[in-house]
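task queued by scheduler; priority normal; single chain, no ligands, no partner chains; default sampling; output format set to structure tokens
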Amino acid sequence: MSIIANILSVFCKKENKEATDPTMKYLIVGLGNVGAEYEGTRHNAGFRVVDALAQAGGATFQDKRYGFVTKMRVKNKELVLLKPSTYMNLSGNAVRYWLQQEKIPVENLLVVVDDLSLPVGAIRIKPSGSAAGHNGLKHIAQMLGTEKYNRLKFGIGNDFPRGAQVDFVLGKFSPEDSKVMDEKALVCCDAIKAFALSGLQFAMCNYNNK
């Protein structure tokens, strides 16, 4: 075999390994509720981020089992973006299915979720934790059998009177807050890319509380 043929053979084997290696694939899940009545609501902050990520990557979502799915590449990594169509309370069905369908390990899962405990637009990436009353996170933990999965919490604030939490999370942002969320969604996109390319610790150190 010639030297050129040897080089091509090694290159092709490397390319094939990268194409089939599950550690090169990541499932990025944005939580939210489907339907026009929920579009732009605080509870759909996760949708907002994965929509921005898909748009930046020139990717288009397709309606598939348990959710809207698209794929994009960031250097040598493949990101599978998912917006569950199960509604928030059954998000775990979509997450478990697409992890299995794409043969992605749980450590390569990142769930983007709205968070009442953080100011509007604040970002906090964590490797695990309790659901803290969030039904989407709670169902994902039930379906995966563990609370040890990565999540990117996207702050929506908590400026609501006692007993009005449901109306608040299902309500829409003010124009000012919406602008902040759009700007910070792009920072979330950078954090997600950092997570895939450089790991969770790097993403936490460089993007938490940004």
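post-processing summary
- The first strand starts at residue 25 and ends at 30.
- The CA atoms of residues 4 and 10 lie 10 Å apart.
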